[in-house]
């Protein structure tokens, strides 16, 4: 059930298969075994030698001139023996080794809005890398197998009344899923946990539910031969469980068009898979926070997927956003190659500003306008009353209890009422109703429009080095804006206006379409000379819109206290771009050897 990265090598003869290597498990059906053909007069196999079922027993080649024509027959028989042996081994390997549990996506309804799959043993390649990488961190070095990870997680969760080894590890498999699902106007968490022992799972789940204090209406489950299906919600979990099972039987998530399209794109073995239906998320946002789903859909609609895996030098995340329309943030050829020519700074960034940046900006502004503040011209706005001195004292006391985790249930409604009024209107001594925070929204829209007009089609890049004294060494900074038109002077003037007259640093140069700055102590060499960056650059989309690089090794040298326990981190890299009209990207976290 677990994957042990420290397993001992096989002590026997390396030229012979281990005992029982290709045999069926105890108690399995065994068909009648044909007797192996043995050439008359041939030497017998030594006692204990392994003979695969039906295999041809090779004999010494006959002397030249005898048994004319036997050479081809011997060769064919030998090949058939190898093929048969490989076939038997493959069946046994798949059925009894690689079969770590059912696909969790088969257990969820196709209407699930979000799905996460965790596979703690996706392949013989991934699991050893995962455990090896985790053991580089001081707090994780004791975890030699996946059972230890699970038990530590349970222990850290603080759940009382549950024995991790007895109630969970005794039956928990290695492939699990979690989904959010809306049923009867309620949102539920649905879990599918791989199980290796149905009886132990039944006992363990009963103990877990009892320890949680829940009942069938808030925490219901069913135990199958190979997995446990759980539904959790505020109420009606038992009805939702029955409905989820029924829908999944007819229309499972695994067979839905959107999920199947996304999962088939995500190549390779993945430790974690996360899929989201953004249209359903928009509807959920409207239900939970009151935001219009149109605002979310204007920002992004469709579905997205990302996968988390381990590679030789660290961890990798790849993702794709399957949009209903072409991804707005288009890319350009050669962005990452150009980034590789930047100075080998501790951190660097390169970005292409698409020509339709004004449309993108308007979409973002429309989304955030709802959260910016109260429209003073609106007639239906309810103005909250500031807290009195007595109410503020009461609020302060309740706020301390809330953050200490001691707030009584009967005081929660009063606390949230006072909290809402405090942040909306302040107190009578210090009212916030008349306060403004920064420019009004109209000024922001104007400024954004001015910048997008100048930056459309531009390529921006920059970077610098970390400094323990100044956070960033100002002399190491470098920046360049390559505009689509010869308007660099207009950009400098606009920046100066919005910096309230503060001039740009001495050394800024304006030359036609380029505005640039290079410090007196920029890093030597280029990013492309770094093996890690070159390795990453080969994975990026052909048309990239954003690239980022951070050298954690240098950051740890400058800020050792902030990186306590994170010493194994080496570098972070990210690139986002376009594939067939969809947004896609890759992130890599490099670790030290």
UniProtKB/TrEMBL annotation:
Annotated transmembrane regions: 74-98
* Superkingdom: Bacteria
Task: State the residue spans of region: Disordered.
Answer: 1-54
Q: Keyword Transmembrane helix, does the record have it? A: yes
Instruction: List the keywords (alphabetical).
Output: Membrane, Transmembrane, Transmembrane helix
Residue stretches of biased makeup (Pro residues): 11-50
Any idea what this protein is called?
A: DUF3352 domain-containing protein
Q: Organism, per UniProt?
A: Glycomyces niveus
């Amino acid at each position: 059930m677990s994957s042990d990265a420290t397993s001992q090598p096989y002590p026997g003869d390396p030229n012979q298969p281990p005992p029982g290597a290709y045999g069926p498990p105890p108690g399995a059906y065994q068909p009648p075994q044909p007797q192996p053909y043995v050439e008359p007069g041939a030497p017998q196999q030594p006692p204990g030698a392994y003979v695969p079922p039906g295999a041809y027993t090779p004999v010494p080649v006959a002397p030249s001139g005898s048994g004319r024509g036997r050479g081809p027959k011997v060769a064919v028989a030998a090949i058939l023996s190898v093929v048969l042996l490989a076939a038997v081994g493959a069946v046994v390997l798949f059925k009894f080794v690689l079969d770590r549990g059912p696909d969790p996506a088969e257990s969820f309804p196709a209407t699930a809005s979000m799905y996460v799959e965790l596979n703690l043993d996706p392949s013989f390649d991934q699991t050893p890398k995962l455990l090896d990488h985790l053991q580089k961190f001081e707090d994780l070095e004791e975890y030699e197998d996946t059972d230890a990870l699970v038990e530590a997680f349970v222990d850290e969760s603080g759940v009382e009344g549950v024995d991790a080894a007895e109630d969970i590890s005794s039956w928990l498999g290695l492939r699990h899923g979690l989904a959010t699902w809306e049923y009867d106007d309620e949102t539920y968490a649905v879990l599918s946990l791989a199980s290796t022992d149905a009886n132990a799972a039944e006992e363990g789940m009963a103990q877990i539910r009892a320890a949680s204090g829940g009942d069938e209406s808030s925490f219901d489950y069913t135990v199958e031969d190979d997995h446990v299906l759980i539904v959790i919600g505020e109420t009606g979990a038992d009805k939702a469980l029955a409905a989820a099972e029924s829908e999944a039987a007819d229309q499972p998530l695994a067979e839905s068009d959107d999920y199947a399209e996304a999962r088939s794109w995500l190549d390779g073995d993945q430790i974690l898979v996360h899929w989201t239906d953004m249209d359903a998320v928009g509807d959920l946002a409207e239900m939970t926070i009151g935001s219009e789903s149109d605002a979310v859909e204007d920002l992004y609609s469709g579905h997205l997927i990302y996968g988390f895996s381990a590679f030789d030098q660290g961890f990798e995340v790849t993702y794709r956003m399957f949009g209903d329309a072409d991804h707005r943030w288009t890319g350009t050829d050669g962005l990452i190659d150009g980034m590789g020519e930047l100075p080998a700074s501790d951190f660097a960034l390169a970005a292409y500003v698409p020509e339709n940046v004004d449309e993108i900006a308007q979409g973002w502004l429309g989304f955030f306008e709802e959260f910016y503040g109260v429209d003073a011209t609106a007639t239906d706005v309810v103005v909250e009353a500031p807290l009195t001195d007595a109410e503020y004292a009461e609020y302060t006391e309740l706020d301390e209890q809330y953050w200490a985790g001691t707030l009584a249930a009967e005081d929660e409604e009063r606390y949230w009422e006072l909290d809402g009024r405090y942040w909306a209107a302040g107190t009578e001594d210090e009212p916030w109703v008349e306060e403004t925070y920064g420019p009004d929204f109209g000024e922001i829209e104007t400024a954004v429009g001015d910048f997008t007009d100048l930056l459309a089609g531009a390529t921006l890049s920059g970077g610098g080095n970390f400094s323990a004294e100044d956070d960033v060494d100002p002399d190491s900074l470098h920046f360049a804006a390559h505009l689509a038109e010869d308007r660099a002077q207009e950009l400098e003037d606009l920046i100066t206006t919005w910096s309230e007259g503060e001039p740009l640093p001495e050394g800024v140069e304006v030359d036609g379409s380029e505005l640039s700055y290079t410090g007196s102590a920029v890093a030597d060499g280029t990013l492309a000379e770094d093996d890690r960056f070159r390795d990453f650059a080969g994975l990026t989309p052909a048309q990239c819109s954003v690239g980022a690089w951070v050298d954690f090794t240098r950051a740890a040298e400058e800020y050792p206290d902030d990186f306590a326990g994170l010493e194994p981190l080496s570098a972070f890299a990210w690139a986002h771009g376009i594939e067939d009209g969809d947004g896609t990207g890759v992130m890599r976290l490099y670790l030290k050897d």
